[in-house]
Amino acid sequence: MLRVPKCRASLVDPYRAHLRKRRSEDPDVPVKHLFEEIKALGFTGCLNLLHKDINQGRADELLAKLTAACPEMTQLATGVRNFAPPLTPHADNADALTRWIAQVRAADLPHLHAFTRGLDRDIDAVIAGLTLPYRNGPTEGVNTKTKRIARQMHGRAGFTLLRHRILLG
């Protein structure tokens, strides 16, 4: 089976050598100036296309600069990422939650301390939500549908008419 190449041809491709040369000469040259230069050379694309092409690798560079400048950001991002796996219901999530809370407190991340205090206030409900397979999504769906129907009738529906519309629709 043949695979489609990941890099597709772009309108910027014929001007890439010029762009690289200009960026190596002056890394801080504004994209608008580069756009005007290649437009004079015959570029037919738009400024957004050039922005997208030039800024492709910048996200990784920016992340590296931010983490070097502020190591707390790395710890904070790691702490938030480590909280995601226990959000899928599993019996071991209670232990994972207590380990995560201990790690966050040991890392001394004040931004997450308020969150962990909130978790501690109602730890039984949090553990039940992370370990049990039950969800209240269907109930919330019914509530949303009821509110939508009431809004569609501009608040003029009495209980009997609203009940009728819910049961029939």
TrEMBL record:
Pfam family, one: DDE_Tnp_ISL3
Taxonomic superkingdom: Bacteria
Ranges for domain Transposase IS204/IS1001/IS1096/IS1165 DDE: 73-166
Record protein name field: Transposase
